[in-house]
Amino acid sequence: MTGSAAKGAADTEGQEEPVADLVPAEKRLVRRAGWLLSISDLLWIGQAALLSLVISEFVAGRPQAGLLTLVAPAAVGFIALAGVRQWLGLRAASAARSAARAVKTRVRTTLLNAIAHSSPAASLPSSGHVAAMLGEQVDALGPYLGNFYPQQFRLKIVPLGILAATLCVSWLAAVILMVAGPVIPLFMALIGIRAKAASQGQQEELTRMSGFLLDRVRGLETLRLFGALGRTEAEIGRVGEAFRTGTMRVLKIAFLSSTVLELFSALGIAFVAVYVGFSLLGSVTAGTWGAPLTFGGGFFVLLLAPEFFAPLRAYAAAYHDRAAGLAAKEKLQELYSGIVAQGLQSGPPEGSAKADEKPSAPAPRQTHAPEIKLDHVSVTFGGKSIIRDFSLEIPSGETAILTGPSGAGKTTLLDCLLGLHRPDSGRIFIDGKDLLTLDLGRWRQEICWIGQHPRLFHGSLRANLLRADPDASTEDMMLAVRLAGAAALVESLPRGLETIIGEDGFGLSVGEKRRIALARAALRKTAGLILADEPTAGLDDQTAIDVIAGLKKMAAGRTLILATHDPKLMSVPGTRIELDAAHLSEASA
C-alpha cells in the first residue's frame, strides 16, 4: 500500500460508520421493546394460574354457587391481564418500529451525504447498485433491529420466568424443559451459518439484478437500434432465473430451521404432557416437592410448557431477519467504505495543514481575481505518482496555460484547485490562505468550471443556465449567451431559451453543448477564477474559435487556468507552463 493509500485508509476509519453499531445507536428503544415483550409474556403465568384454578375447582366438583363466586373475579383478572398484555405488545411494536425507522433513516442519510460530497473524479458504483443498496438492503436492517434484537432480549428473560414458575410446581417438568430448550438454539446456530451465507448470496444477486435492469432500461433505445432486444430479453430471463433459484435456496433453509424448531418444541411439550398424565394416574410419584401432582398443578404446567418454547419460536423466525440484516449490513458498510476511500477527501497530508486542524476560515469572497500558489505539490492517484514536487505561482488576474502530454497531471492540478484531490505533500494557497483551511463549498462557488464534457440536464436552456445564478435575468442570460458565441444558436431554436433539451444535452451537438456550458459559466459574475479543462477538445475549427473568443472575454479581470493540447489556445495571452516527464514518476511498486 502506498503512503497515500495508507493515509486514506486511516482517514476512512475516522469517518462516521453508518452501520457499524446499529444497536447502541437505538439501545434505549430496543431495550424498551424487549422489556415490554418480556413483561407481556410473563403475565401469562398469572393468566395460567387463574385458568388452572377455575378448571381444577370445576373438575373437583365444587358446588355451583361457590364456583360462580370463584369464576367471576378470576374472569375479571384474566381479561384484565389479557388487556394489559395486548397494550404492552402494541407499545413494544411501536418502540421497535421507531428504532428501525431511526436506523434506516440514519443509514440512508449518511450514505446519501457521502455520495453527495464525493469527488466527481471518484469511480463510484452504478446508480442501479446504489439504488438497490439504499432500497432493499437498508430495508433489511429494519427487521434485523426491530424484530431480532427485541426477540433476543425476550429470549433471555421469558424462558427463565416460565422455568421458575414450573419449578415451583414440579422440578421434573422443569428439568424436561431445561433439556429440550437449549437444543433448539444449538441447531438454529448451525443452520444459521448456512442461512447467513445464502442470504449474502441472495443480496448480491438482488443488487446485481437491480443494476442490470437499470442499465438495460437506460440503454433501451440503443438496444432497439442495434436489434439487441431479443438477446437482452434472454439475459433478463437468465438473471431472473438466478434470482429465483437463490430465493428458493434461502426458503429451503428457512423451512429446514422451522422443522427443527417445531420438532424439538413438540417433543418437549409431549414429554411434559406424558409426565403430567402418568403423575395424575399415579404411575409416577417423583418430580414434585413431596406432595403428589394435583390436577390443577399439572394443568398449570401444561399451560406454561408451550409458552416456554414461544420465545424460542419467535427468535428462530427472527433469526432469518438477522441473517438478512447481517448480509445487508456488510454490503452497506462495504459501499460506504468504498465511497469514502474513493470519493470523500482524506485528511490533510503530512507537511501541509495539521491533521487535527478543522477547516474554519471562510473562502475569500472573490470580488477580485485570486492569487494562486502551489508549493512543492505532489499527488499520487490510483497507485501512481502523477505530480511530483511541483511549484507554481499565478498572480491575481493572470492567465496560465497548462500544456503537456496526456497523463502529465493537467487535469489533476485543476482537481486539486477544486479541492477534489488533496496533495500527498506540499500546499496550495489561495490569496495566501491554505486551501485546506477554507470552506470548500464556498470556495467552489467562486469558481467557473468549464470541462471538456459539460453536464447539461433535462429541461429548458433557461433552467440549465439558472444553475449558475438562480437570480439571473433574461438580459443577463442573453449577455452570457452572446459572450459565449451562442447567440445564433439560441435564436435559431424554436423556443429560444425555453427550448427543452434531453439529459446530457441530448439534441445538441458537442460544440453547441460546449458553448451553452460556457454561457452558464459566464453567468457566475462573482467568480474570480476560471478553470477550463480542454475546452476546445473535439470541436471543429470555427466552433473552437468561438469558444476561445468567449474565454478571452470572460478572462478580463479574472484569473484563468487552461489545461489544453490545442495549439489554437496558445493565442490566449498568458504564461505557458509545460508539464513534462520532470513532474512524473514511474508507477509505484
From TrEMBL:
<dbReference type="InterPro" id="IPR014216">
    <property type="entry name" value="ABC_transptr_CydD"/>
</dbReference>
<dbReference type="GO" id="GO:0016887">
    <property type="term" value="F:ATP hydrolysis activity"/>
</dbReference>
<dbReference type="InterPro" id="IPR003593">
    <property type="entry name" value="AAA+_ATPase"/>
</dbReference>
<feature type="domain" description="ABC transporter">
    <location>
        <begin position="372"/>
        <end position="589"/>
    </location>
</feature>
<dbReference type="Pfam" id="PF00664">
    <property type="entry name" value="ABC_membrane"/>
</dbReference>
<dbReference type="InterPro" id="IPR017871">
    <property type="entry name" value="ABC_transporter-like_CS"/>
</dbReference>
<dbReference type="GO" id="GO:0005524">
    <property type="term" value="F:ATP binding"/>
</dbReference>
<dbReference type="GO" id="GO:0140359">
    <property type="term" value="F:ABC-type transporter activity"/>
</dbReference>
<dbReference type="InterPro" id="IPR039421">
    <property type="entry name" value="Type_1_exporter"/>
</dbReference>
<keyword id="KW-0547">Nucleotide-binding</keyword>
<dbReference type="InterPro" id="IPR011527">
    <property type="entry name" value="ABC1_TM_dom"/>
</dbReference>
<feature type="transmembrane region" description="Helical">
    <location>
        <begin position="33"/>
        <end position="55"/>
    </location>
</feature>
<keyword id="KW-0812">Transmembrane</keyword>
<dbReference type="GO" id="GO:0005886">
    <property type="term" value="C:plasma membrane"/>
</dbReference>
<feature type="domain" description="ABC transmembrane type-1">
    <location>
        <begin position="36"/>
        <end position="324"/>
    </location>
</feature>
<feature type="transmembrane region" description="Helical">
    <location>
        <begin position="253"/>
        <end position="278"/>
    </location>
</feature>
<dbReference type="InterPro" id="IPR036640">
    <property type="entry name" value="ABC1_TM_sf"/>
</dbReference>
<dbReference type="GO" id="GO:0042883">
    <property type="term" value="P:cysteine transport"/>
</dbReference>
<feature type="transmembrane region" description="Helical">
    <location>
        <begin position="67"/>
        <end position="88"/>
    </location>
</feature>
<keyword id="KW-1133">Transmembrane helix</keyword>
<feature type="transmembrane region" description="Helical">
    <location>
        <begin position="157"/>
        <end position="190"/>
    </location>
</feature>
<keyword id="KW-0067">ATP-binding</keyword>
<dbReference type="InterPro" id="IPR027417">
    <property type="entry name" value="P-loop_NTPase"/>
</dbReference>
<dbReference type="Pfam" id="PF00005">
    <property type="entry name" value="ABC_tran"/>
</dbReference>
<feature type="region of interest" description="Disordered">
    <location>
        <begin position="344"/>
        <end position="369"/>
    </location>
</feature>
<feature type="transmembrane region" description="Helical">
    <location>
        <begin position="284"/>
        <end position="305"/>
    </location>
</feature>
<protein>
    <submittedName>
        <fullName>Thiol reductant ABC exporter subunit CydD</fullName>
    </submittedName>
</protein>
<keyword id="KW-0472">Membrane</keyword>
<comment type="similarity">
    <text>Belongs to the ABC transporter superfamily.</text>
</comment>
<dbReference type="InterPro" id="IPR003439">
    <property type="entry name" value="ABC_transporter-like_ATP-bd"/>
</dbReference>
